[in-house]
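Sequence, please.
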């Protein structure tokens, strides 16, 4: 593996994945004339759904806001942030409350693919029920956790495609829930703008030194 040395004389392995991660930054300025095709949006979400979820729940949903009418609906309830109008697409990242009863259905394709033997399905469902049944806070925590994992995967996928992105928490959650028809068990976790950038965006900002955030036990 090849390594590079940064300004702090820390050695970092070089490959396309790591370079994508280290070069990502939050985009503020987007090319308003740019668009993404249906297939490009599907590719981003397909990659996003490869992220991990507890018990393979896949308890997430993604709403791609990209038409002028949909952007106009989202913009005022997203604190009128310009990126909502400027970016090619804004994903409403939806987390679904963890529901252990969905485990057999989620695992059915895994069994069909020959990855998991069928007799193991109850061994996943039973502990999932013990973890989530009648535990509303834990159900909500898992919705946010899964949605965040999926969002991170989309962010890095977008960067690998040469696109900018910005996760955003500035929005009226109740209004987004209402105006975009979310179900009772769904939470609008965050917004994610994605699209080709225009000039003026900053590079990735320096982070805290590893020594300040890492301890060994």
């Amino acid at each position: 593996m090849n390594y590079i040395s940064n300004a702090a004389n820390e050695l970092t392995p070089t490959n396309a994945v790591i370079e994508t991660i280290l070069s990502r930054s939050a985009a503020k300025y987007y090319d308003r004339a740019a668009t993404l095709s249906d297939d490009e949006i599907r590719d981003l979400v397909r990659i996003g759904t490869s992220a991990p979820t507890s018990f393979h729940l896949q308890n997430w949903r993604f709403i791609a806001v990209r038409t002028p009418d949909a952007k106009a609906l989202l913009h005022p309830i997203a604190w009128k942030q310009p990126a909502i109008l400027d970016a090619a697409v804004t994903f409403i990242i939806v987390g679904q409350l963890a529901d252990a009863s969905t485990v057999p259905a989620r695992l059915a394709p895994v069994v069909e693919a020959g990855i998991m033997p069928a007799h193991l399905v109850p061994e996943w469902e039973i502990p999932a029920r013990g973890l989530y049944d009648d535990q509303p806070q834990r159900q909500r925590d898992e919705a946010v956790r899964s949605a965040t994992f999926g969002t991170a995967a989309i962010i890095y996928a977008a960067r690998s495609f040469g696109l900018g992105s910005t996760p955003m928490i500035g929005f009226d959650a109740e209004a987004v829930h209402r105006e975009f028809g979310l179900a009772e068990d769904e939470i609008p976790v965050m917004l994610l703008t994605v699209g080709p950038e225009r000039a003026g965006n900053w590079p990735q900002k320096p982070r805290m030194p590893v020594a300040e955030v890492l301890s060994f036990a």
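The longest helix spans residues 136-160.
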